[in-house]
Specification:
Length: 952
């Protein structure tokens, strides 16, 4: 039966039939599952050969979700058309200007009255796909709104696609081409529409009074701070993303606690007046109640005093106040409080309550901010949560490909002359104009790598008629304030800078952040991104353009954007090719080559270096005020415990290396922890974990019937084969050769005829409370990990497994060495295949250059080992597979290590099985058998794109 015919039958007759790329699909935004119509459009664009959109309403934000994909299509010479309208004056003139910047898009305006179409047509290789429904090309429709869209497919000669194309021809022919002159005329008659997505208020204003009410985050934080005070605490720490209203929060708490005197400490004078004005808005009262203590002002009698740390830390000013003069002290940007000036000030003053506020409590030195505040975290809200609460301005991040100089990619060591060459500057202009900004009126911060680069680029931009300036470390406060004023007033469009605007500066009108530098840390990245996230009526979104060169730290980009600092390479790869984790109407987009540069950085980076692990360990210890264990890393999300399990025999070995423990474990106890960390902590199968848990609870002897009942009580498979596999694992009977030798003495159980007993070594080790603590720690981590896997079948789609894991999970009686498995193995009705899709030329261990390839989301073109013929035993199985399960595992390249993504079960296409001759290393030829393997379930489109595509 034809594949499209199957898909139609599946959609309209029997949903139990096998699916494919052609399946009709109802598309609904499901933010709770990170499933969006936007991602469907992006996938269609990535694979199409031509496209046509007929869309009534389009916004700049909606276009932003597609721009990197359109740019990639332009690189391949693929073009499209867009038909839109002026219906209801919804479409803004600025949006039409943005459309003209897309070189591979032809745009026309329909004059049809009431034009309200919403259709997307794609010419795909071999078929047509089209989406018709309720979604316009706006970011709300693409990600937030409850919309219904239906995706259908057709061959070229289908009746429905014929009708669609005929209507397209008629409408296109009767429409008007979009031109700059048309836009100017449209602007003259344009009447702006009020959009809910443009409501950018930072706080809730009461329409009936002249006072301000706290927003959602502030209400929650105020309750937490009050609860902290009621518990007797005298200190509290607020961790809150830039732009979420920390200053207003502090003012609300001061209003609530009613101190007789308050001191607000900042590290920069230009922040003082802004903070003072915010407090007065909230608290009210006479102007004389609010004063400033700085180098230029000395308003010492004010009830609410706003001081710079540079002034208040001087003894001559501290002595003007008694230590308990201020009942309430607040410190802004408190992560700087490790400096002597802060410590001296805090030693002198004795307030009833001390509140610290920061977006980034992590420090690069050894000072412990958490200890300074008695480990009392009153409230914490990071970037993702702040976006969810609609506290920040939406942003569109574009990871774009930086300029290549003489076939060399921009890197940390590139000479200044190339960074500021005419060609690179022209390249920057083009990208900045293409990706644009809200209302096309840039007010941008450009972060450079060097002072000379900032100075020269500012000069070159001015020469090109783009008014700009630069600010670096040697510029005074007055000079900085002047340039910021010029930027906000529109006198200049860009400020080029190096580091000085990472924090502590408030420029709400910034609508474009440009990164021309290596990402040195995820903290600095978020600080720089945060410069544009404060809401302001002048903008609907912020554009972030990150020029990605050949930087070794590129792996930090997905780490920073996703907030996933686990240092798990698989997670970072996924966060790069699957960017739907970002909340609300924000979006993350990478050009293809930029994405490949990030993959390369992830592959080559050493994320488990002792320097990094030590740093992460002590940061966590500072936060929780005790020695952290594996479950603490997991719960805090600061490091994947599996990184430590892979790096060391067990966690206690790591503690010994960093001199955080002097306890000595017995050799047997060490072996148990090593075995658990290497084989069980991943949580692939829950049975072993449940059984070990029972033994830790004192149940050290179980009969066979009790074992079955135990697993049944947890809704786990409890057939004889599965139970035998569990027992073989925990008794070490499954393991052979060097693997078995490495786990010597770590058998958890002894297998008897009628059941099991805890092994003598385990019973002895359980007498050591410290060992029990460490084993419980491993077990708690593994049980959390196990939630990621399905319990009713051996493998979970798109999770990663090592070769030896697959053998164990298929209940085979004995381990096979990875080298013996190689590309595949088979036994007892189970056939497992492992493919590396992008092999290097000197791919180790390969006699022949195999050309395994994912043809589409449903098909793997596959080669057997050599020499094999059409009569080889495994080929016979693949020719008659009815009684066999055939599982396929794949990795993108051998740089990814020893684990493989599980892609699902397949069936060989019998017509495709043929014997061929292929050359081997000695120049001779050997026979292999090639075939197409058809997946029973269509591969996830994002994973397919990641695995199948490679940078040109």
């Amino acid at each position: 039966m034809d594949v499209l015919e199957k898909s139609l039958k599946k959609a309209f007759i029997d949903r139990n039939l096998e699916g494919s790329t052609y399946d009709p699909q109802l598309i609904i935004n499901k933010p709770e599952k990170n499933e969006y119509f936007l991602n469907v459009l992006q996938d269609e664009l990535d694979s199409c050969q031509e496209f046509f959109f007929s869309i009534a309403f389009v916004t700049q934000s909606g276009l932003n979700g597609l721009k990197t994909h359109l740019s990639d299509l332009a690189e391949k010479g693929i073009k499209g058309r867009l038909l839109t309208s002026t219906y209801l004056h919804f479409n803004q003139p600025e949006m039409f200007e943005s459309l003209l910047e897309i070189p591979n898009l032809e745009i026309r305006i329909s004059e049809k009255e009431g034009f309200h179409a919403k259709g997307y047509l794609f010419s795909q290789p071999g078929y047509q796909s089209f989406i018709i429904g309720s979604s316009n090309l706006t970011m709300n429709a693409l990600k937030i709104n409850y919309e219904w869209n239906i995706r259908l497919t057709s061959y070229e000669h289908g009746e429905l696609i014929h009708q669609i194309r005929e209507d397209m021809k008629i409408e296109w022919a009767s429409s008007i081409p979009l031109t700059a002159a048309w836009i100017e005329n449209y602007r003259k008659h344009y009447q702006p529409q009020i959009r809910s997505s443009g409501d950018l208020k930072m706080i809730e204003e009461n329409p009936f009074n002249d006072y301000i009410l706290p927003n959602t985050m502030q209400k929650s934080a105020l309750k937490k701070i009050e609860g902290l005070r009621q518990s007797g605490a005298k200190k509290g720490l607020i961790i809150s993303a830039t732009g979420t209203g920390k200053t207003y929060l502090a003012a609300f708490d001061v209003l609530k606690s009613k101190p007789k005197r308050m001191l607000f400490i900042v590290h920069r004078e230009q922040i003082l007046n802004h903070a003072k004005n915010s407090f007065r808005k909230v608290i009210g009262g006479e102007a004389s109640d609010f004063g400033v203590l700085s180098g230029s002002k000395k308003e010492l009698d004010a009830k609410y005093l706003f001081a710079t740390i540079q002034t208040i830390s001087k003894p001559e000013y501290q002595e003007l106040f008694e230590p308990d003069y201020f009942e309430y002290i607040l410190i802004d940007e408190v992560h700087k409080a490790g400096a002597k000036s802060y410590l001296k000030t805090l030693e002198y003053f004795q307030p009833n309550f001390l509140l610290g506020m920061t977006a980034t409590p992590e420090r690069t030195d050894a000072f412990n901010i958490f200890e300074l505040f008695d480990y009392n975290i009153a409230y914490e809200i990071r970037l993702q949560e702040a976006l969810e609460e609609d506290l920040l301005c939406p942003f569109h991040y574009f990871g774009v490909t930086d300029y290549e100089v003489q076939n060399e990619i921009i890197s940390e060591t590139t000479d200044l002359q190339f960074l500021v060459s005419a060609e690179r500057v022209r390249f920057l202009f083009e990208k900045m104009k293409y990706y644009g900004c809200s209302y096309n009126n840039p007010k941008g911060l450009v972060f450079c790598s060097r002072k000379e680069e900032a100075s020269e680029l500012s000069k070159l931009f001015n020469e090109q008629g783009i008014p700009s300036s630069y600010l670096v470390g040697h510029h005074s406060i007055e000079e900085r304030e002047k340039e910021v004023e010029r930027l906000e007033s529109g006198e200049i469009q860009y400020i080029f800078t190096v580091d000085i605007f990472n924090e502590g500066i408030d420029i709400p009108k910034i609508n474009q952040v440009i990164m021309l530098r290596n990402t040195e840390s995820s903290i600095i990245f978020i600080q720089q991104l945060g410069r544009g996230l404060r809401k302001d009526p002048s903008k609907e979104f912020v554009t972030v353009i990150d020029f990605i060169g050949n930087y070794k730290n590129n792996y930090m980009i997905p780490m920073a954007l996703s907030g996933d600092v686990s240092r798990n390479k698989n997670n970072l790869r996924q966060k790069t090719f699957e960017t739907n984790y970002i909340t609300g109407v924000s979006s993350i987009n990478f050009e293809t080559i930029a994405k490949e540069r990030i993959f390369k950085s992830i592959d080559s980076s050493k994320m488990d270096s002792m320097v990094e692990l030590r740093r992460i360990y002590f940061e966590l210890k500072n936060r929780i005020n005790r020695i952290p264990y594996l479950k603490d890393f997991q719960q805090q999300g600061v490091l994947d415990p599996l990184v430590l399990s892979n790096r060391f025999d067990h966690y206690h070995e790591f503690l010994l290396k960093i001199k955080e423990s002097t306890v000595q474990l017995s050799a047997e106890s060490s072996q148990f922890l090593k075995f658990f960390g290497k084989e069980l902590i991943q949580g692939f199968r829950k049975h072993e974990l449940i059984l070990i848990y029972q033994m830790l609870q004192g149940r050290v002897c179980l009969k066979n019937k009790e074992l079955q009942e135990l697993f049944e009580s947890y809704d786990l498979p409890n057939d004889e084969q599965t139970i035998n596999s569990i027992l073989g694992t925990l008794s070490l009977d499954f393991y052979v050769g060097g693997q078995k030798k490495s786990y010597l003495g770590a058998a958890f159980i002894k297998v008897m005829n009628d059941g099991i007993l805890a092994s003598d070594n385990l019973l002895e080790s359980l007498k050591d409370p410290y060992f029990v603590k460490l084993l419980n720690d491993c077990l708690s981590v593994a049980l959390v990990e196990s939630r990621k896997y399905q319990n009713d079948q051996p493998f979970t789609l798109y999770k990663k497994y090592r070769r030896r894991d697959t053998i164990r999970l298929l209940n085979w009686e004995e381990q096979m060495v990875d080298q013996n498995i190689g590309g595949y193995t088979y036994k007892n009705g189970k056939f497992v295949i492992f493919v590396t899709l992008h092999k290097e030329e000197d791919f180790k261990g390969a006699l022949m250059a195999y050309e395994d390839k994912l043809i589409d989301e449903n098909t793997l073109h596959y080669f057997t080992k050599s020499p094999r013929t059409i009569h080889s035993p495994e080929v016979k199985i693949l020719q008659n597979p009815d009684d066999w399960e055939i599982h396929v595992f794949a990795q993108k390249s051998n740089d990814e290590g020893i684990d493989f993504y599980y892609l699902g079960e397949v069936m060989p296409d019998q017509k495709s099985i043929i014997q061929v001759e292929k050359p081997v290393k000695d120049g001779k030829k050997q026979s292999v058998v090639q075939m197409d393997l058809k997946f029973k379930a269509t591969i996830d489109s994002k994973l397919f794109t990641y695995l199948s595509k490679i940078a040109d």
